[in-house]
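Example 9 (inverse folding). The structure is encoded as follows.
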């Protein structure tokens, strides 16, 4: 019995058992293999998503760190030919592959939406000359990106909408295409500032908030309330010395025919009783009321450095004390009021400062905006705008592209200006450039097509007496505006004034409310490589990132 049992226990597995075992193993192996394949697919998809998200974040960080116009510049002129670097810093290590003819070229460009399709924008062409109306790119540059101006979309289906494309952008293991969308239109929540939505509305042209502006790309010239007080003291002291000298000369002439000391004494007393010798200087405050102030601001570029210098000239030659005598006036000055043009010995009615540098650019920085803040001299009661007490001259004879803000300030402490003061106020603003250096010798034949390198933003010609009524400020005529062309020798040439000058200088107004910028919604979409050529189909979208961009 035991022998039979031992025999049976030593026998092998039956065929049925083998079949069952193999079946179980196959099923288990198939499940494990499927899980492994699925896991691999998930890992690959996850890695693809992570890489795409990293690319999206790099793009978003880049566009949020730049001004909107600089974003536009980077996609239309991706390589800075002055430095050889990519304008999109996260692509700088790949700059040799940007927009080349190689197979692995990285494409960087602006596109525009046409229905459901995307098309290339049109850049400025030298054949366009002064007519830039055909340019559909969001920046206009006539020198391959060295200087440029923003070209906003104000009409059509793409109003305030901008699209940028990147192709073959490298990740760690994969390459991607990307579509960057900016929307500043009504669909983005943009509402124009009006009386009814004053809190929510946006305004594209508002006075700058100085606290938010850096000094690397912005120059500030702030003329305080009493910046010219010391100069007026110098002028008043000079007038007193000249008046006393003139009085002494007149007295000497009056008594020159006297034949005795007694007669000289008598004539001296007689002259003195009629004309007391000047003993006190005239009031600097009164002289100031009739003093012509001229502020000169000069912009120069040399060796890659941009400088902004300023000087001022005060001319009080026309001052006459009300009810005063012949010694209480300024026109006794020997310069006859001509010392602004050249130095004249003995002149006391005119004060000239030296040029002072108030801005000098750092390495590779560029001056974007120049701000001039000043308190107007509201004592001018002359309605004729050709006789102005306040004069500002911007000397940009190197044609440096810059936005110039000229902002008159309110004296809140003294409640100045009143509405009457604003209505009577007149000033002269002249901007000088040299169109000949840009080969625009016939710039004045069609001023509707010619645009200056200087762009003017100012609250002149607006009544700022009522601080609360910013949106309903009345337009007034204060500014005698001149665009003055100079030749290559610096001599005044042709000029345009008034409306023509405003058009040339791309004039626009501003008000003195705290800065409120247009807000653009920003969206970065990252697709599989090759999606751009297909029009960015949604089924090839890998990752998307939303944000906002204030401009």
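The amino acid assigned to each position is listed next.
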């Amino acid at each position: 019995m035991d022998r039979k049992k031992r025999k049976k226990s030593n026998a092998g597995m039956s065929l049925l058992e083998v079949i069952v075992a193999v079946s179980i193993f196959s099923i288990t192996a198939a499940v494990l293999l499927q899980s492994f394949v699925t896991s691999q697919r998930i890992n690959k998809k996850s890695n693809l998503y992570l890489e795409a998200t990293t690319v999206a974040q790099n793009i978003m960080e880049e566009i949020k760190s730049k001004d909107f116009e600089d974003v536009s510049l980077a996609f239309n002129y991706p390589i800075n030919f002055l430095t050889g670097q990519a304008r999109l810093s996260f692509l700088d290590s790949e700059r040799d592959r940007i927009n080349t003819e190689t197979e692995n070229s990285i494409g960087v460009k602006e596109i525009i939406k046409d229905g459901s399709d995307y098309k290339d924008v049109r850049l400025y062409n030298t054949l366009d000359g002064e007519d830039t109306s055909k340019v559909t790119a969001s920046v206009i540059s006539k020198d391959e990106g060295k200087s440029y101006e923003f070209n906003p979309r104000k009409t059509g289906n793409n109003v305030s909408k901008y699209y940028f494309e990147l192709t073959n952008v490298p990740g760690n293991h994969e390459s991607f295409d990307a579509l960057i969308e900016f929307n500043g239109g009504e669909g983005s929540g943009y509402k124009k500032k009006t009386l009814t939505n004053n809190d929510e509305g946006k305004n594209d042209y508002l006075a700058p908030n100085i606290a938010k502006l850096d000094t690397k790309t912005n120059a500030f010239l702030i003329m305080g309330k009493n910046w010219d007080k010391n100069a007026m003291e110098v002028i008043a002291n000079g007038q007193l010395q000249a008046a006393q000298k003139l009085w002494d000369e007149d007295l000497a002439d009056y008594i020159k025919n006297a034949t005795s000391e007694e007669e000289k004494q008598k004539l001296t007393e007689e002259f003195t009783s009629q004309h007391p010798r000047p003993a006190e200087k005239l009031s600097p405050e009164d002289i100031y009321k009739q003093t012509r102030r001229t502020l000169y601001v000069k912009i120069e570029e040399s060796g890659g450095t941009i400088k902004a210098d300023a000087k001022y000239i005060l001319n009080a030659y026309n001052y006459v004390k009300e009810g005063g005598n012949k010694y209480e006036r300024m026109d006794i000055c020997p310069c006859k009021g001509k010392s602004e043009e050249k130095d004249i010995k003995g002149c006391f009615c005119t004060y000239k400062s030296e040029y002072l540098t108030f801005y000098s650019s750092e390495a590779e920085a560029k001056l974007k905006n120049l701000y001039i803040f000043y308190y107007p001299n509201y004592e001018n009661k002359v309605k004729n705008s050709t006789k102005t007490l306040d004069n500002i001259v911007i000397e940009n004879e190197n044609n440096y592209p810059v936005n110039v803000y000229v902002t008159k300030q309110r004296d809140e402490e003294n409640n100045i200006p009143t509405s009457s003061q604003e209505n009577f106020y007149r000033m002269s603003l002249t901007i000088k450039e040299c169109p000949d250096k840009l080969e625009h010798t016939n710039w004045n034949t069609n001023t509707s097509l010619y645009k200056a390198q200087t762009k003017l933003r100012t609250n002149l010609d607006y009544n700022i007496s009522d601080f609360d009524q910013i949106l309903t400020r009345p337009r007034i005529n204060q500014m005698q505006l001149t665009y003055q062309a100079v030749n290559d020798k610096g001599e005044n040439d042709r000029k345009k004034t008034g409306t023509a000058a405003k058009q040339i200088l791309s004039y626009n107004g501003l008000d003195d409310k705290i800065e409120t910028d247009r807000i653009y919604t920003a969206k970065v979409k990252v697709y599989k490589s090759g999606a751009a050529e297909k029009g960015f189909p949604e089924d090839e979208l890998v990752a998307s990132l939303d944000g906002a961009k204030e401009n």
